[in-house]
Amino acid sequence: MNSSDSLARGVAAASPGTLHARSVAGDIRVPPSAGRTVRFGRGDEPDVDLCVGEDDLRVSRRHGELTYSRRQWWLRNTGQQLVRLPRGRLMHTSTEPVPLAAGYTPLFVQGSGHREHLVELYVTSHDQQPLVPRRRADTLPPKRWPLDEDERLLLVVLGQRYLRYEEAPRPLSYRQAAEQLSYLREGSGWGERRIEHRIVAVRRRLSDGGFPQPLLQDREAGGPCDNNLLHNLLKGLVESTTLVPPDLDLIDDPEELEDLDGLNV
Fold it and tell me: What is the total count of domains within the chain?
């Protein structure tokens, strides 16, 4: 039996509230009990219950702990390096404990250089369905978002750095996009204002359709600026494979790209 099979069987057989924790060094299963604390880090037993980053001196010997209280497991960072949760949420030693939701939660302990050490957490729920390996089942495709031809062209121009998988990409400005589009579609009338209005319409439509990242500014709450919302749009479209690298064929022209490099800011 491999590790994924054993995890599936363990979760299926566990009582509600049971914590399953796994790293590359091992795994544990802990039933819920008021006041019970599970510790993880670089150290050895009895200092920690789950070893994480055993060869990385940036990982603290006791880097984090999970305590069962008020019918939930609460996560706390006790190490010198940050802990990263889903959606980019970071935890410092001064951060208040975070309750774990039922189901799966991955967390990452920052280590040396670019290393991050994964800890997989799973809390069994009351309505837990048995986890069954589905190795031969068809793969579910990602959620892809509908775009017409003009929208795809605009978004490829604005998001070409994302499609080249550059590090920390940012959108082209509307001015840069208008200049490139005037070359690609001479006489089409894609000025800055027209581009902006079309992108706002796309953001509004996809937001209404359940897009996972925020696309509309909450003016009362002082939401993110337009450029950050455009970043969310492009990032989400690339991550969902709605936009893919072959879409760059719409704009890739060596002479034009050389001219564009001089416009980058």
Answer: 2
- DSSP strand pairing (64-69 vs 37-41): antiparallel
- Closest among 161, 184, 163, 187 to 173, alpha carbons compared: 161
Residue 244's nearest CA partner among 144, 172, 139, 138 is: 144
Is residue 141 a part of any domain in this protein? no
Q: What is the pTM of this model?
A: 0.70
Please check whether residue 29 is in contact with residue 10, taking contact to mean a CB–CB distance below 8 angstroms: yes
**Domain of residue 58, CATH code:** 2.60.200.20
Question: CA-CA distance, 171 to 232, in Å (whole number)?
Answer: 10
- 12 and 114 belong to one structural domain: yes
Contact of 248 with 153, CB cutoff 8 Å: no
> Do 101 and 211 sit in the same domain of this protein?
no
Domain that holds residue 172: 149-261
CB-based contacts of 35, cutoff 8 Å, min separation 6 = 67, 68, 69
Q: Does residue 249 surpass a pLDDT of 90?
A: yes
**Using one digit for the tens of pLDDT, what is the confidence trace for 125-168?**
866 665 677 888 998 899 999 999 999 999 999 999 999 999 99
CB under 8 Å, gap of 24 or more: what pairs does 127-133 form? 128/11, 128/12, 128/14, 128/16, 128/102, 130/8, 130/12, 131/7, 131/8, 131/11, 131/12, 132/8, 133/4, 133/5, 133/8
